[in-house]
Design a protein that fits this description.
The chain is mainly beta. Helix content is 10%, strand content 32%. The chain has two domains: 39 residues, no CATH class; 79 residues, RNA polymerase II/Efflux pump adaptor protein, barrel-sandwich hybrid domain (OB fold (Dihydrolipoamide Acetyltransferase, E2P)), CATH 2.40.50. The strands form three sheets. A four-stranded antiparallel sheet has the order 3-10-8-5, with no helix packed on it. It has a four-stranded antiparallel sheet with strand order 7-6-4-9, with no helix packed on it. A hairpin with a 2-residue loop joins β1 and β2. About 8% of the residues have low confidence.
Length: 163
């Protein structure tokens, strides 16, 4: 802590807090040196508050009873499960922009139903102007592609399912 507490230091700390809010940051740390053995270290942290929103459920609707019995249709696969939890999920190792082909207009690295080998490039993620080839973590068949070409992705986001 600084040996002298001045109004300038208080104004500096207030400016850091405003900077934190204006730029949607969660933490900011700064050290000011005033001279030998005289400095000011400031760490401003904003804690995020997570609030669960209530989910509105629609009221049940009474359907008229069918007059004839129809054959039961096979159950559709449930797609509401989280793809990131799927055992065959390929997740993003970084934040960036995902590309399904090497260049615009070129054929994609893989398509749904394609058989891939372990280590084969399945897409590219551009991060900081660097093209990062993302390899298949295992051999298998591409079952789902969960992103569109040119879309941004976050770290850990599911990209595709390989079974």
């Amino acid at each position: 802590m600084s040996k002298h507490s001045t109004e300038a230091d208080v104004a500096f700390i207030k400016a850091l807090a405003e900077l934190l809010n204006q730029n949607d940051l969660t933490e900011l740390s700064v050290k000011r040196d005033y001279g030998i053995d005289d400095s000011l270290e400031v760490r401003v942290v904003k804690q995020a508050t997570v609030v669960a929103a209530p989910v509105a459920m629609p009221a049940p609707v009474a359907l008229p009873a069918p007059t004839t019995v129809a054959a039961a249709a096979p159950a559709a696969p449930v797609l509401s499960e989280d793809p990131a939890q799927h055992p065959g999920a390929v997740t993003s190792p970084m934040v960036g922009t995902a590309y399904l082909s090497a260049e615009p207009g070129a054929s994609p690295f893989v398509t749904i139903g394609a058989i891939v080998t372990e280590g084969q490039t399945v897409l590219i993620i551009e991060a900081m102007k660097t093209m990062n080839h993302i390899p298949a973590p295992r051999a298998g068949t591409v079952k789902r592609i969960l992103i569109a070409d040119g879309n941004p992705v976050e770290y850990g986001a599911p990209l595709m399912i390989i079974e």
